[in-house]
Amino acid sequence: MFDLHPQPSTPAKRTPTHIDFKLGPNGRGLPPSLEARHDDYLVELTGEDDPASAKSWAFRRKLRNAAVLGFDTLVASWGSSVYSAAVAPVSKEFHVGTVVSLLGLTLYICGFATGPLAFAPMSELYGRKLPITGACFVFTCFMFAAATAKDFQTLMLTRFFAGVFASCPLAVVGGAFSDLFGNETRGIAIAAFSCLVFIGPFISPIVGAFITESYLGWRWTEYITGIMGALAFVLDLFLLEETYEKTLLQRRAGFYRKETQNFAIHHISEEEIVDVKDMFNKHLSLPLKLLFGEPIVFLITIYTAFIYGILYLFLEAYPIVFAEYRGINEAVSTLPYIGLILGVILGSGIVIAFEPRYNRKLKANNNIPVPEQRLLPMMVGAVMFPIGLFWFAWSGNYPSVHWIVPTLSGIITGAGILTIFLQALNYIIDAYLVVAASAIAANTFLRSFFGAGFPLFATQMFHKLGVDWAGSLLGFLGIAFMPIPFLFYIYGERLRKHSSYAPTDFAKKSDDEENQDGSAGPGQEKREEQGGGESGGSSTALDG
Predict the structure, then answer these.
(1) Less CB within 10 Å around the terminal CB: N or C of the chain?
(2) Does residue 354 contact residue 376 with C-beta atoms inside 8 Å?
(3) Domain extent for 525
(4) At a CB cut-off of 8 Å and minimum separation 6, what does 234 contact?
(5) Are 236 and 344 contained in the same domain?
(6) Sign of torsion over alpha carbons 316, 317, 319, 325
């Protein structure tokens, strides 16, 4: 703590502090101030084609990085549900009940809830590549540890920590896509990325079932996931590039400092002080305030948590319908998941089809996000989703009905899952630009526990109620949630005006200031800066 304006003839005075500062000659006083302006030493982008901005990279270079990031995401989501095929063999080998054995699935998903609390801020401090590459390596180690587990406790612990580190791509890749793609293409890129997030949990049970049924046994479901993680690590190490602009400019500033020995050269982010209290408020306290204090965040989060729970509940419901009721071989009975996979792809196509309309609305609004326009694909999905559930319930309950009928229901259900989930998160981000990361953190935290909990009661529910009424119960819940996007489309803007977190008034307030004095106020500048990344919405839609 210094007197920053000492008299020239006297050294600077220090107030008592627990830190021993020793600045200036012989530890007395302060060094002379810089003669040039502060801005003269700042390292910034030199233009739109500056390679420090990943958006300026060649398309092939972007595509290579996007492919590596996509594979990371696929491996992470694959690992969550590949274990579903190992539930029965693990139960038999370690002499535990089936529900207890299911903890290998649920603990992995619980890891999804805790990991982003560390990886999200880490990606903002150190860039995208370091946390993704490091987490991928540790994830691989835990997967091989799970494959060689000698007791049930070891298997459960390694599955949980594998889930913690697998959450890194889900928390960080959305931001990396935001670095790579501009307004016109980001929505399409994120839709494709989201497709991988949902395809992984549906395709891995198919592969896992055939592995388990073969002479390889259940341990190879973990071995193969570990091998995939090792491949992802190698790709991250050698092909993945850093995309975060702040980190790239910090490296440039460090290079200039080393070459010139002028240590005043820096990037503006290096002036920031990492405060543990601020990080606590941003990543723990604020998400809870948003979740329980904002009706939009609360209802959207509950809806997406329900959708996420259904996603993992199907891992138990489909074997009941196709293996138990129809007597199909357990490996072959997983093939109907292909219907859900096709549905996810269809849902991605629906979201992409609405992107041109959203971009037109965005440009007409001076690149300020129009959150309610995100809800149109979600409305389509909200109608499709319960239709798919009722179709599955009443066609799957009767073995006399051909297996293709409940399988085709997955196309409608999968499309509903993708459109609701992706656009709900995009809506939250567009509506809460300044605190979007915290809003998504709250959503991630709650939905992960829904995803972890639903499989635990799925078997009992479908056995006690029957497929028809258990599926119908889920369908009725889907109908109960269905009005949410329609209501927010009508009343969303009105609700945001009463929110202290949704920045709807920034633009209007600054517009009034601009009309009065002819200059844009700070609110407008901040709003445009945040809103300029259209799919700021899309960019972090699946963070964590």
Answers:
(1) N
(2) yes
(3) 504-531
(4) none
(5) no
(6) positive
